[in-house]
Write a structure and sequence with these properties.
Elements lengths: L13 E4 L6 H10 L2 E4 L1 H19 L24 H12 L3 E4 L2 H15 L8 H12 L3 E2 L2 E3 L8 H11 L4 E3 L5 E3 H7 L11 H6 L3 H31 L9 H5 L4 H13 L4 H5 L12 H4 L1 H23 L7 E2 L5 E2 L7 H29 L22 H17 L21 H32 L7 H11 L11 H14 L1 H10 L4
Helix pairs in contact: 1-4, 3-6, 4-5, 4-9, 9-11, 9-14, 9-15, 9-17, 11-14, 14-15, 15-16, 15-17, 16-17, 17-18, 17-19, 18-20
């Protein structure tokens, strides 16, 4: 899996936690640009105040879940004070049970920032030194090794967060800022940090949250913002290259069905196709095309629906950012109460929704590419856009690559959140599987980027083949950006590096930037 197509975002040197919810930009700055972290003084005061309540309950002979009891199905056992340090340490060790490939560094840093944000609310009952130690890991670029499998998305992302907490107590392995695999204790010592000896409630507070799935949702939405613009660029290039009409994107037609995302996508495509000599060339009385195919005509409806779904997901993410997810939790009036706020269902649902729209955006893109390759439908271009069809195969297999990815994306669109496997001796008898929803969405975002890149590569070739007619300024700028890395039409060449080059341009944001250099910012 790859990182963001927004890799050129500006670096923020320090993100301050504890003065309200962290923002999407904060998450991206820490996760992708290695921003340091500072915890606000007022947050540290709130943390210290809530800890007083936890310590009072720890001294009380009445059992309190998470403070003086076992966990999950073992919550009925009262733990005496002399065993509570061992209780917290054992919790972290036993829950750090992940398996599989290492999770990407940006995901781990995102979940760490979000857990730190909850700790800094003062609602979890940890000591200030735990908050400082957690912030120190992020600032020093120490990234705990977290594994692909282990979270059921309820009681939050237990295993991934436990691997982070393991680092905090000086155990397990980490990656240093330069990527070196190092024992946690050595990395802490090298950066002047010290392992934390966890006290009552602290182990539970470190692992009981939706931070992993939420971090991946925020990163995915950041990526999708860029990809939705790229989808409009690619669709406009295909409409132009396939001699389609821009009239169907008129604002008054879109207003008859007032979905905001649809209006934004149509407005983008209208601007992208403006002043195109290719479009103008077939606005004649002898044009026999009555209506364009759905993959051209309905591009704003599909991309618009994706935009509106992303906006719903953004609302859910912002609510989750404003949350203090833990169990039990220290309330504002000082009570310590059990609750179900750790359940990942709200986040899991929108992660699955996004996987659906990502698959459909890729599907319609692949259909447009396929039209370019069929001489019965491409309005006068060579079969497969080949230089000498039969001798050359042109972009025939580029479309196969798209089709293989789209097929995979359809499988990834099957929701994880409809599944639930009971755990912890039936105490945790309904789980969200939100972590799984997040993992497959990351793979889907990568797949969509590749599919759109192939469409851009193919449509750029088609636009060149329309010469001497010229494309509009915006699409011409995109073609020029592609041509800096990939030669124009000609006999067959080794195609994989050319696809890879355009995928890199898509990831970097260069394709959208090229279009915007001609017509200004896209919606």
């Amino acid at each position: 899996m790859t990182s963001s197509p927004n890799s050129a975002l500006p670096t923020t040197s320090v993100v301050t936690v504890g003065v309200g919810p962290v923002s999407f930009a904060d998450v991206v700055a820490v996760a992708r640009h290695d921003a340091a972290v500072h915890v606000a003084d007022e947050a540290m005061t709130a943390v210290a105040e809530s800890r007083v309540r936890i310590e009072a309950l720890a001294a009380d002979p009445t059992p309190v879940y998470g403070v003086s009891t076992g966990f999950g199905a073992l919550a009925t056992r009262h733990i005496p004070p002399e065993l509570r340090t061992q209780l917290q340490r054992s919790l972290i060790r036993s829950h750090a049970a992940g398996s599989g490939a290492e999770v990407e560094r940006e995901v781990v840093r995102a979940l760490m920032l979000l857990r730190l944000s909850t700790l800094a609310t003062g609602r979890t009952g940890v000591r200030p030194e735990v908050v400082r130690a957690y912030a120190g890991l992020l600032t020093e670029g120490i990234t705990p090794v977290v594994y692909e499998y282990g979270s059921l998305g309820c009681s939050g992302d237990l295993a991934p967060l436990a691997h982070v907490a393991l680092t905090l107590i000086g155990e397990g392995q980490v990656r240093t800022r330069d990527g070196e695999l190092t024992p946690a204790a050595e990395a802490l010592a090298a950066h002047g940090l010290h392992p934390v000896v966890l006290a009552e409630k602290e182990g539970l507070a470190l692992i009981n949250g939706t931070d992993g799935m939420l971090g991946q949702l925020i990163l995915a939405l950041t990526d999708l913002d860029a990809l939705l613009k790229l989808a409009d660029v690619a669709a406009a290039m295909s409409v132009e290259g396939l001699l389609g009409t821009e009239r169907v994107f008129a604002a008054d037609l879109q207003a008859l069905r007032p979905h905001p995302g649809q209006a934004a996508a149509a407005a983008n495509m209208t601007r992208l196709l403006a002043d195109s000599a290719i479009v103008a060339s077939h606005k004649t009385d002898d044009c026999t095309v009555v209506q364009d195919a759905y993959s051209l005509r309905c591009a704003p409806q599909v991309a618009g629906g994706a935009r509106d779904t992303a906006e719903h997901a953004r609302t859910v993410a912002q609510r989750e950012l404003a949350s203090a997810v833990d169990n039990p939790v220290v309330t504002l009036d000082g009570r310590v109460e059990s609750n179900g706020n750790f359940h990942g269902a709200p986040v899991a649902y929108v992660l699955d929704f996004l996987a659906i729209v990502v698959a459909d955006l890729a599907s319609i893109s692949e259909r447009r590419t396929d039209r370019f390759l069929d001489p019965a439908r491409n309005h006068g271009l060579n079969a497969f856009l080949a230089d000498d069809p039969g001798v050359d195969s042109g972009h025939m297999i580029a479309q196969y690559t798209q089709a293989g990815i789209v097929s995979e994306l359809k499988r990834l669109a099957a929701p994880a959140s409809v599944d639930s496997i009971p755990s912890s001796a039936m105490q945790e008898d309904h789980v969200s599987m939100g972590w799984s929803s997040a993992r497959k969405l990351r793979r889907a975002i990568d797949g969509l980027t590749r599919v759109l890149a192939v469409e851009v590569l193919t449509s750029a070739r088609a636009l060149d083949l329309r010469a001497p007619l010229t494309p509009g300024p915006a699409t011409a700028a995109v073609v020029a950006a592609v041509r800096e890395h990939v030669p124009g039409p000609g006999p067959d060449r080794y195609l994989a590096p050319e696809i890879a080059a355009v995928v890199d341009l898509a990831h970097s944001g260069a394709l959208v930037a090229a279009a915007e250099s001609a017509i200004g910012a896209l919606s």
